[in-house]
């Protein structure tokens, strides 16, 4: 069967209209990026997406530190939706709004990383370790 | 009845047992046991103060008859002067066991009684365990720390099945455990029928180096010696004796014909001299050699030899991300893989049962690979833990530790002055690369330093500070704390780390730590275990009771992330891949609602315990209090609520 014969002029107009509408919406979304809400992002981080499991309850004690977050919001959304990393799953179904909310929440987490020089315990270990290696 | 008092065979005398006269002691033991029973009963009635024990409600006659399970009828109702199990104990005493883990069972009641009354509960001393898996894991951890096997004694089928997971881990870890299972071969009671089997050893044969069921006492002695020597010969592994309960109970038929064999340990297989020479040639002429280890150091001599080899070659030593044994000092300048720019041209694998990655790494650049591994000597078995076949250039079927002296000697012989200068320069480069890596690692520890719950590096660092002046030993694995123990605690001695489970199965860490701590006790060391909450929940609490009961000092820190977190992430990844959302992945993976209170559990077993501790600032004082208990000779537990994972 030649499918092209089935495409009527009316249908063509309808499809074209729908495509134009979608393009227009996408353009509007691109022009107006979603605004994240940290309050909504916290339960998304802790419960809905269980981000804490790998990244720690504080976003910085896990296997990949999220704090400080170096992504832009757009970059973060793109990365999470299509992660190429083997241990980080991609979340294509996570909505831009959800990810913007999580992004906003992560940005509110204060970096809890005093310098090693300001942590006597770690400073001492670093010095002893260097001494041992030099022996 | 004779009037001799039963005297336990002294440990020092085991090597000089009068092999023709053991029955004299046996007779005395039996007599002593009998009189002790009578005496004990009399003193209980006549001499004990009325308030010596709290009043206990006595069962009614109906209760008693409902609960009563008739004992298995014995061979003969008459008095047995020379039971076979006495001879068994005399044989076992020649094997220099210090301890035997026992969870009692009727299939070995004869052996149990002989261990106590004929053997005097010394060499081996009975260690009461509350689960056979704990008994096997204790023996596993003990063997690695003590450098010699421990015995574990089990009931037919049910006890062996309970122990099977612990024995499996020992198999995968290539660690000898001397296991004995009692077997009521001809049961008449309804209770013991399921505890009997056509082929008892078949239950665990897939992960036993050998098993056998002796048919008479002479064969028992023979098989015991074989099991012990085979189990301790690399590749080492657990062995099993199935011991018929009738053989234990029946009188020795012809005492004059029985002797106790003398133990002769075989030498450990070393590498063929030509192959060792070729390996030395490749290593001597290498520009960038790399040493990789698996389960290398069986003894402190192996540890010393590896340091000697690494320093001779000035080659980095990569112990891998997951090392079940400790092979090389973790703060040594050569500890690591040489840094990101180090491209090895020769890789020496020592007891590394799979060198596929090494071969792949050097082959394209014309590099060479050498494998010295006892796994080549392994006999067939069902478990896929023997690793891939690797196309190495030199394959030496031998024990790594035993081969190191000849390899070192050959490298020295082949080394020239220019080679030595080259090595010195190489060593400096490697040390510099490792120094940069170490500083980055320490830097990673500061993230989440003050977070609640406690970060893994903070937990380990607080511990490191408090034990730095102790002769400590980590008796648990590293599996769930990443590399933080090695990074923050200087593993500078062979016994500092007792290794992981081998089989990647959960439930090993806590009981094996009790076994490791038991071995360290006589040396006055400070044993420490960091165990996952998931691991603790298997047989951990009961194992701690054993530590309390036998006064085994041990600090247990429960790294309590209230979940099986690896699995949280795995299910999460799968759900994401399938586009099904992640809000349900906690189901089946978390340990909350309610969160177990491990301190209370431990206290219930008679252990000093504190927790849950989620505030990092509360950790140091809690550690101080708990360590004071451990230094005084008792076990203690801290329940530390922790972040799910450690930073990398």
Description of the structure:
Chain A has 6 helices and no strands. Chain A is mostly helical and 135 residues long. Chain A has a domain at 38-108: Cytochrome Bc1 Complex, Chain D, domain 2. Mean pLDDT of chain A is 81; it is low at 1-16 and 18-23. Chain B is α/β, with parallel strands linked by helices. Chain B has 20 helices and 16 strands. Chain B has helices at residues 22-46, 61-67, 84-93, 109-118, 132-146, 158-172, 217-232, 245-249, 273-285, 300-313, 356-363, 400-414, 417-445, 456-467, 484-488, 509-521, 533-549, 565-577, 598-604, 619-631, and strands at residues 99-102, 125-128, 151-154, 178-183, 210-212, 239-244, 289-293, 317-318, 346-350, 368-373, 394-397, 472-474, 526-532, 554-560, 608-613, 635-641. In chain B, the strands form 3 sheets. In chain B, strands 2-1-3-4-6-5 form a 6-stranded parallel sheet, with helices on both faces. Chain B has a 5-stranded parallel sheet with strand order 8-7-9-10-11, sandwiched between helices. In chain B, helix 11 (356-363) links the parallel strand 9 and strand 10. Chain B is globular and about 80 Å long. The A-B interface holds A 47-50, 52-54, 56-58, 60-65, 67, 87, 89-93, 111-116, 119, 121-122, 124-126, 128-130, 132-134 and B 331-333, 431, 434-435, 438-439, 442-443, 445-451, 453, 455-456, 461-462, 464-465, 488, 490, 492, 563, 565, 568-569, 572-573, 576-577, 579, 581-583, 585-586, 643-648.
CATH homologous superfamily of the largest domain in chain B, by name?
Answer: Thiamin diphosphate (ThDP)-binding fold, Pyr/PP domains
How are the strands ordered across the major sheet of chain B?
2-1-3-4-6-5
User: Which stretches of chain B of 5+ consecutive residues score pLDDT under 50?
Assistant: 1-52
- How would you state the average pLDDT of chain B, rounded? 88
Low-confidence stretches of chain A: 1-16, 18-23
Shape of chain B: globular
Strand-pairing-aware structural class of chain B: alpha/beta
β-strand percent of chain B reads 5-15%
Number of strands of chain B: 16
Class computed from helices, strands and strand pairing of chain A: mainly alpha
- What's the N-to-C terminus distance of chain B? 71 Å
Helical content of chain B (DSSP H or I, runs of 4+):
40-55%
CATH class of the domain at 38-108 in chain A: Mainly Alpha
Q: What is the second-level CATH architecture of the largest domain in chain B?
A: 3-Layer(aba) Sandwich
The helical percent of chain A reads: 55-70%
CATH topology category name of the largest domain in chain B: Rossmann fold
Most strands sheet of chain B: 6 strands, parallel
Mean pLDDT of chain A: 81
